[in-house]
Automatic annotation (TrEMBL):
A GO molecular function held by the record: CoA-transferase activity
SUPFAM superfamilies assigned to the protein according to its UniProt record, in alphabetical order: CoA-transferase family III (CaiB/BaiF)
Name of protein: Crotonobetainyl-CoA:carnitine CoA-transferase CaiB
Keyword Metal-binding: no
Keyword line: Transferase
Keyword Transport on entry: no
PANTHER family referenced in this protein's UniProt entry, alphabetically: SUCCINATE--HYDROXYMETHYLGLUTARATE COA-TRANSFERASE (PTHR48207)
Length: 397
């Protein structure tokens, strides 16, 4: 089946999450992604469990649809192989700390001289410029610097890290859209370019409502648990047997909620709850009043009633419940496949549903150096030359 990025060639020198997630999405859309892993042990995620038949599940999750070569870039022959790959590539991605690529001889200026049309994307914690550029930056540090941790958690509680590596994924998404934009430009002008993506910038760019509040009124986001900062009721509420989410975020929905769900018409004239902004100011009082009613029945009762009334609502799932929900499954967000060593496996599906060029699961994540010979043959190496690279520890076995 034809895919949107058929014909795009990507050399991926990134590891762990942000870069590999980016290249996984490009591969899902049809790009030929060659994952270049460091010699001799490969991507750091290969050392992270859980393991299935000694294969890291974490590694397998973000490296599907790629081909893999294990290459010693600290050797001249290893660099020679990489340079040959670059001459044929459309895109190159790396996530070293700034300055390392220059030492390795794989910086943008060096690779641009080999391939002027190359799109070169660097992903780092803090970016290639600025006073923090030389600092090591992981997702949790980016969450701290961007203010996310300070604004996450229960009111009067300790700051809390967001439950997923949100800055890593934000950087991956930023890299994806940037690479595709640069690729379109290259198709029109024939010119490559350099792209500098940082974890901090990428996550910070998602704080649009918080920035509006700060720039507009000088408000600093506070920890509010599940509550919204400017809308109410729009949060999690305790029921007789658990918690549910209710989002009556405008006046029409608020009226439906009062009249059809909790049967509290008096709340419509209560001065504490007259408008959305007033309700948000008095969100704690509103929460107490609502939970006095909700505690009389189980979550399923209220969710059915909310659905019938047309008031947005939903459960608060544990992760295993989410992965087994009938809607998630019907959207094909869980994919079954066979791995040559790990056997029957599951992975996450494709979030965007294309009518003409859908994402495809073509191959599982490569074993370490699985495509060494195949890739070297494509580059013009014969059997004797390949064996020489193996014996001189330029590639792995």
């Amino acid at each position: 089946m034809e895919q949107a990025l058929n014909g795009m060639k990507v050399v991926d020198l990134s590891q762990v999450l942000a870069g590999p997630y980016c290249t996984m999405v490009l591969a899902d859309m049809g790009a030929d992604v060659i994952k270049v892993e460091k010699f001799p042990n490969g991507d750091d995620t290969r050392s992270m469990g859980p393991y299935i038949n000694e294969e890291s599940y974490m590694y397998m999750m973000v490296n599907r649809n790629k081909r893999g070569i294990c290459l010693n870039l600290k050797t001249d022959k290893g660099l020679e192989v990489l340079y040959k790959l670059i001459k044929e590539a459309d895109v190159f991605i790396e996530n070293y700390r700034p300055g390392v690529t220059k030492k390795l001889g794989i910086d943008y200026d060096t690779l641009k001289a080999l391939n002027p049309a190359l799109i070169y994307c660097s992903i780092s914690g803090y970016g290639q410029t600025g006073p923090y550029k030389d600092k090591g930056g992981y997702d949790i540090m980016a969450q701290g610097l961007s203010g996310l941790i300070d604004m996450t958690g229960e009111k009067n509680g300790k700051p809390v890290k967001v439950g997923i590596a949100i800055h890593d994924i934000a950087a991956a998404q930023t890299a994806i859209q940037s690479i595709l934009s640069a690729y379109i430009y290259r198709l029109k002008k024939g010119t490559g370019q350099y792209i500098d993506v940082s974890l901090v910038d990428s996550g910070l760019a998602w704080t649009v409502w918080e920035a509006a509040a700060y720039f507009g009124k000088g408000e600093v986001p506070q920890r509010n648990g599940t509550a919204h900062r400017v809308s109410a009721p729009y949060q999690g509420f305790k029921t007789q047997d658990g918690f549910i989410l209710i989002g009556a975020g405008n006046q029409k929905l608020w009226e439906k909620f009062c009249l059809q769900v909790v049967h509290k018409p008096q709340w419509l004239t209560d001065e504490r709850f007259l408008t959305n902004s007033i309700r948000a100011t008095n969100a704690s009082q509103l929460e107490m009043e609502i939970e006095k009613v909700l505690c009389k029945h189980p979550s399923s009762y209220w969710l059915d009633l909310l659905d019938t009334s047309g008031v947005p609502s939903g459960p608060i799932y544990s992760y295993d419940q989410a992965l087994n929900d009938e809607h998630i499954l019907s959207r094909e967000m869980i994919v079954d496949y066979e791995h040559p060593l790990a056997g029957s496996m599951k992975t996450l599906g494709f979030p965007a549903k294309f009518s003409e060029t859908p994402g495809q699961f073509r191959t599982p994540a490569p074993l370490l150096g699985q495509h060494n010979k195949e890739i070297l043959t494509e580059l013009g190496y014969n059997e004797q030359e390949t064996q020489s690279l193996l014996s001189s520890k330029v590639i792995n076995n």
